[in-house]
């Protein structure tokens, strides 16, 4: 069944009009007609089966015929990561961690960051597409770019992966089901950023014997966190 997304629908919705983009996709691209069934997601735990009542490519009308609600997960997997210079690599990571079950993504600005500005809309669209593909009912929260030091101070007691020497832990053995996981840029976090993290209660992480690309490290950390759920 084809899936469509709108954050504004809820369990009280009876009839609904798809936005113009989704209407065009349903009626012109997929060629759906009156009487055809579709699925609606709101990214907040609701899946609804709906029937098309008006197949207009600009204002597709549907009525909800069945609603399923899923409780929110009792854990948080929050990946806070410095975006790569090439957007495509970070887009790939957002897609994959969404499929796996990440609940929140924050983009970080480090002293060694290669990319210092982002447009979130593209990442949000990729997350929506990945949510549909994986049949998840919850869309991860994606946050604006924030400086590493500000993030650490506002979110103490997390986990930080870096390539410097130190006593490091395997995330699968120490993850507490809620604290953020920091992944640095390809030039790594600065020594000062790592020290700030440690003084704010962050545990240092090892992501294995191999040196990983930033986007691979983000995916690996998400998988390690999931092993503890």
Automatic annotation (TrEMBL):
Cellular compartment(s): Cytoplasm
UniProt keyword Glycosyltransferase present: no
Cited NCBIfam families: PRK11713.6-1, RsmE family RNA methyltransferase
Gene3D superfamilies listed in its UniProt record: 3.40.1280.10, Hypothetical PUA domain-like, domain 1 (2.40.240.20)
InterPro entries according to UniProt: Alpha/beta_knot_MTases, PUA-like_sf, RsmE, RsmE_MTase_dom, RsmE_PUA-like, tRNA_m1G_MTases_N
Function: Specifically methylates the N3 position of the uracil ring of uridine 1498 (m3U1498) in 16S rRNA. Acts on the fully assembled 30S ribosomal subunit.
GO annotation (BP), single: rRNA base methylation
Domain Ribosomal RNA small subunit methyltransferase E methyltransferase span(s) in chain numbering: 74-222
Record-given protein name: Ribosomal RNA small subunit methyltransferase E
Domain Ribosomal RNA small subunit methyltransferase E PUA-like: from-to ranges: 18-64
A Pfam family reported for this protein in Swiss-Prot or TrEMBL: PUA_4
Catalytic reaction list: uridine(1498) in 16S rRNA + S-adenosyl-L-methionine = N(3)-methyluridine(1498) in 16S rRNA + S-adenosyl-L-homocysteine + H(+)
GO CC term (a single one): cytoplasm
Keywords tagged on the record: Cytoplasm, Methyltransferase, rRNA processing, S-adenosyl-L-methionine, Transferase
EC number: 2.1.1.193
Keyword Transferase: yes
GO molecular function, one term: rRNA (uridine-N3-)-methyltransferase activity
Family (UniProt): Belongs to the RNA methyltransferase RsmE family.
